[in-house]
């Protein structure tokens, strides 16, 4: 069970590296935001599940498992909200820049 937990953690780290590459390579704000938030949600979930498996196998007790589960629930509730706020801010910024370009011409 501990090996499976570390495997989940390793996969989560790989997903975060791919997301970082997407942030650097993608052309616009909304594409970067999409790559970052989707991969972050999946990788945080996998990492937390992996840590729960390691905690159970190591005998850390149910306290750690419950803490990790609460942390996962909070992150799953807040990451989509943060993604939505970033998307709205990016859209507002692109509209502001577009209107400034029209005013100067």
Layout of secondary structure:
Blueprint (H helix, E strand, L loop, with lengths): L1 H24 L3 H30 L3 H43 L1
Helix pairs in contact: 1-2, 2-3
Rg, Cα atoms, Å? 19 Å
Secondary structure tally, helices: 3
SSE topology string? HHH
Class based on secondary structure composition and strand pairing: mainly alpha
Task: Give the low-confidence spans.
Answer: none
Annotation, overall tally of beta strands: 0
Q: What percentage of the residues does DSSP assign to strands (E)?
A: under 5%
Shape: elongated
| Percent of residues in helices | over 70%
Distance between the termini: 64 Å
- Note the main sheet: none
Mean pLDDT: 87
- Integer tally of domains: 1
Written account of the structure:
It is built from 3 helices and no strands. It has 105 residues and is mainly alpha-helical. The protein has one domain. Helix 1 runs antiparallel to helix 2. The mean pLDDT is 87.
Short description:
This protein has 105 residues and is mainly alpha-helical.
Tag the structure with descriptive keywords.
mainly alpha; elongated; 105 residues
């Amino acid at each position: 069970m501990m090996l499976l937990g570390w495997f989940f953690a390793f996969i989560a780290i790989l997903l975060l590296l791919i997301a970082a590459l997407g942030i650097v390579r993608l052309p616009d704000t909304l594409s970067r935001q999409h790559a970052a938030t989707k991969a972050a949600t999946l990788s945080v979930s996998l990492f937390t599940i992996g840590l729960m498996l390691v905690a159970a196998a190591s005998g850390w007790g149910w306290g750690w498992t419950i803490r990790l589960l609460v942390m996962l629930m909070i992150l799953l509730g807040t990451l989509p909200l943060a993604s939505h706020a970033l998307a709205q801010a990016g859209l507002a910024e692109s509209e502001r820049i577009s209107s400034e370009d029209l005013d100067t011409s």
